[in-house]
Design brief:
The protein has a single domain, classed as MetI-like (MetI-like fold), CATH 1.10.3720.10. Helices cover 81% and strands 0% of the residues. It is found in: Cell membrane.
Length: 284
């Protein structure tokens, strides 16, 4: 029995998408090439800088930073986890993955914070952006690799583009939530004292919303890490590349090693970012 839709032909959605991507690729080729050059150079510079000193020096610096930001336990755990990754001979791949996540998170947060603030202040914008965020979070992650390749080609910049699109929605949602859950009494008090909208936003709403915003950034980092294996399919390298190589060569031991390394890196970043938004007296 025929599976064709009766009376009318197939709606040419795929043709429209192909034509749209072709037009965007041609129209913005100069912009995407410039972005690719800037981000590619930045990623390469950070990877080189982190790879130049002996690994123990970089581990000591990261452990000290984690101790300062999140407390003694997280600092010691960071040192132990990174030393274990060095022992597994995955240090170079870890540095590449960390750099990719760092850049992708920075770009995602730079886009998400203004949009989240606007959504927190405007009911109309919030109503418009929420369906878009639902669409972005429901779309399978693999689909984001499709537009990345014609825009930026194979490599880390394409992986970064797909990672930014996939990981950005939680930061927008939780920024909106953080601003909107500020007690109305405090907002009214700032109005009564004659604060303008900038003072009200940056001295009342944003400081009180910081824990919720940091929770959104934390989720963005976790989603960015969850993309590293998928992004390895288009040349991202790093720990995701190790997993992808193990799958292709049927090497389950190497694949689990790289997978555990991703988990360790995720735990370190999760614990540090969770503590940043908390008062100092609650840190351990």
């Amino acid at each position: 029995m025929s599976q064709d839709f009766p009376f009318v032909g197939k709606f040419p959605l795929s043709d429209y998408i192909d034509d749209g991507l072709d037009w965007l690729t041609n129209a913005f080729s100069g912009v995407t090439r410039a972005i690719s050059n800037v981000l590619g150079t930045g990623v390469e510079a950070v990877v080189t800088a982190l790879s130049f000193p002996p690994p123990w020096v970089v581990i000591l610096c990261f452990a000290a930073l984690a101790w300062y930001l999140a407390g003694r336990r997280v600092g010691i755990g960071t040192a132990a986890g990174l030393l274990f990754l060095w022992n597994l001979q995955l240090w170079e791949a870890t540095v590449e993955t960390f750099t990719l996540v760092l850049f992708a998170t920075a770009v995602a947060v730079a886009i998400a914070l203004p949009l989240g603030i606007l959504g927190g202040l405007s009911d109309r914008f919030k109503t418009a952006v929420m369906p878009v965020l639902d669409f972005m979070q429901t779309m399978p992650a693999f689909v984001y690799l499709i537009p990345a390749i014609p825009f930026f080609g194979l490599g880390q910049v394409s992986a970064m583009f797909a990672t930014v699109i996939f990981s950005m929605p939680p930061a927008i949602r939780l920024t909106i939530l953080g601003i909107r859950q500020v007690p109305a009494e405090l907002v009214e008090a700032s109005d009564a004292f004659g604060a303008n909208w900038r003072q009200k936003l940056f001295k009342v709403q944003m400081p009180l919303a910081i824990p919720t915003i940091m929770a959104g950034i934390n989720q963005t980092i976790m989603l960015a890490l969850s993309m590293v294996v998928i992004a390895a399919m288009i040349g991202a390298g790093g720990l995701g590349g190790e997993v992808w190589r193990a799958i292709q060569r049927l090497q389950p031991g190497n694949g689990f090693e790289a997978g555990i390394a991703i988990v360790i890196l995720a735990m370190i970043l999760d614990r540090v970012t969770q503590k940043i938004g908390q008062p100092k007296k609650k840190q351990q």
